Amino acid sequence: MTDPIRLSARDLPAGSRRPKPGIVHLGLGAFFRAHVATYLADAMAQSGGDWGVIGASLQSPAMRDRLAPQDHVYTAVELGPDGRSYRLMDVVTDVLVAPEDPACLLDVMAAPGIRLVSLTITEKGYCHVPSTGRLQADHPDISHDLAHPQNPRTALGFLVGALERRRRAGQRPFTVLSCDNLPENGQVLRRLVLEFAAARDKALADWIEAEARFPSCMVDRIVPATTKEDIEAVCAATGRRDLAPVMHEPFRQWVVEDDFVDGARPDLAAAGAEMVADVTPFEKMKLRCLNGTHSALAYLGYLAGHATICDAVSDPLFAGLCDTLWRDEIIPTLTPPQGADLAAYARALLARYRNPAIRHAMWQIAMDGSRKLPQRILDTIADNLQAGRPCPGLTLAVAAWMKYVSGRDEAGAAIDVRDPLADPLRGLWQNSPETGARVDAYLAHRAVFGALSDHAGFRAALIRACDDLETLGARGAVERITR
Length: 483
Ligand code: CS2
Prior knowledge:
CATH superfamily of the largest domain: NAD(P)-binding Rossmann-like Domain
Oligomer: single chain
CATH architecture of the largest domain: 3-Layer(aba) Sandwich
Helix content: 40-55%
Number of helices: 20
Strand order of the largest sheet: 6-3-2-7-8
Bound molecules: D-mannonic acid
Shape: globular
Largest sheet: 5 strands, parallel
């Protein structure tokens, strides 16, 4: 059998015109390529504009090595409950690998044609303290970047370095658009950039504060990690070898604050994005209803033996857990966006989770929990405590995270924990003499728990949840919650 031909720009429809670059995107992961990139492609198809993307990987050459040989073209595979569809994506025009040539990336970001720098660098990429949103000043890469501004490693170092070059050249700044799952992601990033810039040059920080824009946005699309089997299946279906396909659900949503430097942006509304004045109600609804139950299912479902979200919600016990969390512990903390029906939103989420074509692995959602829990679960717990509302389900999810990151499951088998705090948290569950000491050992991580570290009521509830988890197991503890 002949080897399949490698995907390339030759496979694009006749007459396709690759857009000139207008955007640098930091963090060329699957989510960007399956969500933001599809909106950009649709916006340009509807309204034109040179909003091509120069992607930049801040750590690894892997994505560049996969995309460059195929002219940065890749396949976006929509996995519907009733079948698949394939779309060739051509908005990425180049990929840089920052560690190979940081100065080159700084030059590209400072180029006048770049009017937008967007980011999907995951929660840990912000080098911030999750509970306060402040810069993690003792982060080794932050210390390095402050000392070596022409040779940065972090997104903050590149953003401030490029803005400094633009200021020196008398150019307008670019808009900075965080597309990560953080509450008020634009404002969090703005504060971090200003804090970092002020540590270098107060006048630069003042210019950025006055002239740059950092709109917040809410992004939503379930994008499971691409597997080797996915690559082979795409090859069989399309007759082309694509080493960088992305798999995604049909649903997508993008709600963006319309606050761009000189109004310069792609026509995202033409692509179906919602341009708003305040994204807060949308992001809180999504982070708590979707990401909060995602994390609860990931830890409790994994401990109960489920490998994917779909497997877990096919189990009536865990579908019932989601309903209980939405009804009793999450929706009561929300002010819905105007016209939104939160019960209907939750039902739609459960239908999305049930999509049998999406194999969304628990490990993918469970990773980096110390950076995800604050905005997904702990803030919701804090609001419930403030309102005097018990939240045993979310507290049990925290207990399950504690057990998960200890590195051992209920049978004592090792768990491949991927988390910035994996080392200090490993074994914490097993090594504590009794539950109170165990809980205190975790609550000592104030960067995760913030003010909850000192909340007696939360501590008592967490002790009860850990005891249930230890004596009843995840299934038994969930049964007690959802009875
Ligand atoms: C998931 C998110 O991996 C995770 O943590 O909860 O990537 C989730 O799939 C997206 O936020 C959905 O929009």
